[in-house]
Amino acid sequence: MAGRDKKKIRIAKIPSDYAWSELISLLGQLGYEKIEGNGSRVKFFHSANDSLINLHKPHPGSIVKQYMVKQVVAKLKEAGFTL
Known about the structure:
Layout: H1 3-12, H2 20-29, E1 33-36, E2 41-46, E3 51-56, H3 66-78
Antiparallel strand pairs: 1-2, 2-3
Helix pairs in contact: 1-2
């Protein structure tokens, strides 16, 4: 099983310990471009399927809140990715 597949399986489980670095890595492997915004705002854009994910970097730690993980999973499914 490829690393990308393992990452997709992990995020689909909506873990409570999902790290920001894992999210960046997965979205990059799926073809999303990271666009830094003001402050902690970050956008991820996939030009091939015109998908945009708007997020805030987690702080003070690096763990992504579960509600944000759910939102990312929903956006990925909406964009046609199978998880």
